[in-house]
Amino acid sequence: MIIDYENGNEFLKDNIEFLNTNEYLTTFFKLNAPSILSKSKSNYAIKCENNGYKLVTLRMQSYSTLFFGDLECINEIVSYLIKNKYELNNYLCELSLGNKLSDVLLNEYQLDFYEALAMDFMKATQISEPSSYEIITANGEDIDDIIQCINMFSSECGLNNNVSKEKVLQEISSYRVIKKDGKIASMAKIAPSTSHDLKISEVYTKKEYRGLGLARKVVNTVKNEIIGCGKNATLNVDKHNPITNHLYTSLGFKRLFSQSEFRKR
């Protein structure tokens, strides 16, 4: 059975208990759903439920399509999306679910998706080393520098994210930065996650300042700030990048699961 919701809040109301079975994998569902005011081919929230199995998908335009739930419902929900010409583009989910989706899309519909970003989700619960006095909170004067860093990060990761200056300005107090020569050299953002966690995102160091330990100072200081607020610190790391994996592991982060973004070839 397919339920195609009229808006994101309707979807949340009906599925919040299911989403709460794994708060980490469903964070973006909860963050994005309220912004879907009415359904369209590029903004939608859908549930498939059969014989005790359940799978939900949600897409907000300009972001990856999200999937969460049971593999047994994949064929039916994909069939519904294709038949009704819903936009899919990139999708983000737990690795085994992503691989199954990729197989169905290729074998049944000749749509070739590949794993473009493989990420380990990690969590830290304890302070391991002192914070750095060099880390400061960004302000409105840093807006252009932050947008430049976000664009460079997106380019290096092969992402096509559109940066909204207005949105960054609204969230400017969430950015922590370290400056060199009067400009941001390294930065990170504190983002909402679950009721127990805050997420470290948009970690980026400009190329000319890499190898100086700046990312370590920023991430560690942000981690300490989060833990000091009584929360756990979480983040995603490229599972194929040994440098960042070693950095986060050495700061006390532990892997919980793998999540991947798949893109159309």
Structure characterization notes:
The chain is α+β, with helices and mostly antiparallel strands. It has two domains: 2-111; 123-258, Gcn5-related N-acetyltransferase (GNAT) (Aminopeptidase, 3-Layer(aba) Sandwich), CATH 3.40.630. Helix content is 33%, strand content 31%. The protein has eight helices and twelve strands. It has a twelve-stranded mixed β-sheet, with helices on both faces. Strand 10 (197-205), helix 7 (214-228) and strand 11 form a beta-alpha-beta unit. Helix 3 (74-83) packs across helix 4 (95-109). The mean pLDDT is 93.
CATH topology label of the largest domain: Aminopeptidase
Helix content: 25-40%
Uncertain stretches: none
Q: Assign the CATH superfamily of the largest domain.
A: Gcn5-related N-acetyltransferase (GNAT)
CATH architecture of the largest domain: 3-Layer(aba) Sandwich
Give the N-to-C terminal Cα separation: 30 Å
- Cα Rg: 19 Å
Number of strands: 12
* Element string (H = helix, E = strand): EHHEEEHEHEEHHEEEHEHE
Number of helices: 8
> According to CATH, what is the class of the largest domain?
Alpha Beta
Structural class by SSE content: alpha+beta
| Rounded average pLDDT | 93
Give the CA-based shape.
elongated
Largest sheet: 12 strands, mixed
How many domains make up the coordinates? 2
